[in-house]
Write a structure and sequence with these properties.
The complex is a heterodimer of chains A (195) and B (186). Chain A has 195 residues and is mainly α. Helix content of chain A is 73%, strand content 0%. In chain B, a hairpin with a 2-residue loop joins β3 and β4. Classes of the chains: A mainly alpha (195), B alpha/beta (186).
């Protein structure tokens, strides 16, 4: 992620720079934050095509060029970027889902009574642990997209402070969130790992 | 920057189990198009979109002028068509003096064409007669010809006898008369 010096430079270009400098700052922001922003949103909205989802994320970052708001400081740059891009993207994803008449993630009914590990899954696990984990992960990511994305960032060895910036939590709250997310994931895959 | 330094003994999964989970996540994310770095084609397409966004937009005022001009043109053409449609089927042509034989069609709007030796003088004579009869007159002149638009004519009105006589229309003419006065032999 961005160093403090890079944040300072981008902040200066966004606030005081010429139109060209502002565009180069936004380009840099997109290149830096696209992977995590796309990951976070893609876990939540899995039913669009990849190109449509990428277009939405691009349009969300373009909002940084048209918005009248500005980051207050270099320190608040990341939260400014994440807030604007994420809010814009969420709105665009919801519109796309409505257009294709896909139920929104929050409208999906996941029954909590249903056991994550069905006998069929246990049987399949005897043949392929990796496949079994993948199946459990897919179900888990649909039910808890934010938790799944946080686990993914954590397993990518992303710094806690950076994950905290992306999921808009404090570092301590982020550590706790990742820990709880892994505990939530356990019932979906532990039958595979026990084999 | 600090890395993920959660206490290992608190971790719900062992390192080996996390490796299996990580591999599954990588496969899953590959299907969703999630990458660790921004792909080059996305960087380029974003740069193009950003540049397009910075292009100055065409002035709305210019478009508005065009729209206004087209509206005026359409309105003018509309008036011409309306006038054409309202033109009576029968148009009477008359002369004055020796050739001036009254022959006309009765209509709410009557067209009269007159040929006289001195059109200007005759046009003023008609205008004077119309004004004497307290009527409205619109006059135009082009190429030595005079166009007079006179109204309202009332059937058998005493004060309009002179102008009706000059124009060669019947005493019972009512409505409007469009008169064209040109130069002709007496």
């Amino acid at each position: 992620m961005l160093s403090q010096l890079e944040k300072e430079e981008i902040f200066h270009k966004l606030v005081n720079g010429s139109a060209i400098e502002k565009n180069s700052a936004i380009q840099l922001i997109y290149e830096e934050f696209q992977p995590v922003m796309y990951k976070k949103l893609r876990y939540q909205y899995q039913y669009l095509s990849e190109s449509e989802a990428q277009d939405i994320v691009q349009d969300a970052f373009l909002k940084l060029a048209t918005t009248t708001s500005q980051p207050k400081s270099a320190e608040s740059l990341v939260s400014w970027v994440i807030t604007i891009a994420e809010n814009t993207a969420l709105d665009l994803f919801k519109r796309a889902y409505k257009k294709y008449e896909i139920p929104l993630p929050e409208e999906l009914d996941f029954s909590d009574d249903e056991s994550p590990a069905s006998p069929e899954n246990v049987f399949a696990a005897q043949f392929d642990v990796q496949d079994c984990v993948s199946k459990g992960l897919i179900v888990f990511s649909q039910k808890f997209p934010q938790n799944a994305a946080a686990i993914s960032m954590s397993l990518d060895n992303m710094a806690i402070v950076d994950i905290a910036g992306v999921i808009s939590r404090t570092e301590a709250a982020t550590k706790q969130f990742i820990y709880e997310s892994k505990k939530k994931l356990a019932p979906y895959i532990e039958h595979c790992l026990e084999q | 920057m600090s890395t993920n330094d959660q206490n290992p003994q608190d971790e719900p999964f062992s390192k080996e189990q996390e490796l299996v989970i990580k591999r599954s996540i990588e496969n899953f994310e590959k299907n969703l198009g999630i990458t660790k770095e921004t792909p080059e084609y996305l960087k380029q397409s974003f740069e193009r979109k950003l540049a397009a966004l910075s292009q100055p937009k065409k002035s709305f005022a210019v478009k508005w002028k065009g729209f206004a001009a087209s509206m005026v043109t359409a309105f003018s053409v509309g008036i011409l068509i309306t006038r054409f449609l309202m033109m009576p089927a029968t148009v009477t042509t008359r002369g004055v003096g020796d050739e001036g034989v009254a022959n006309q069609a009765s209509s709410a709007q009557e067209y009269v064409s007159l040929q006289v030796p001195n059109p200007k003088e005759f046009a003023f004579e008609v205008i004077a007669a119309a004004l004497d009869a307290d009527m409205e007159v619109e006059a135009t002149q082009a190429g030595g010809k005079y166009g007079l638009y006179i109204k309202p004519f009332k059937a058998n009105a005493k004060d309009q006898e002179k102008i009706k006589s000059l124009l060669g229309v019947n005493p019972d003419t009512a409505g409007t008369v469009n008169a064209t006065i040109g130069k002709g032999k007496k």
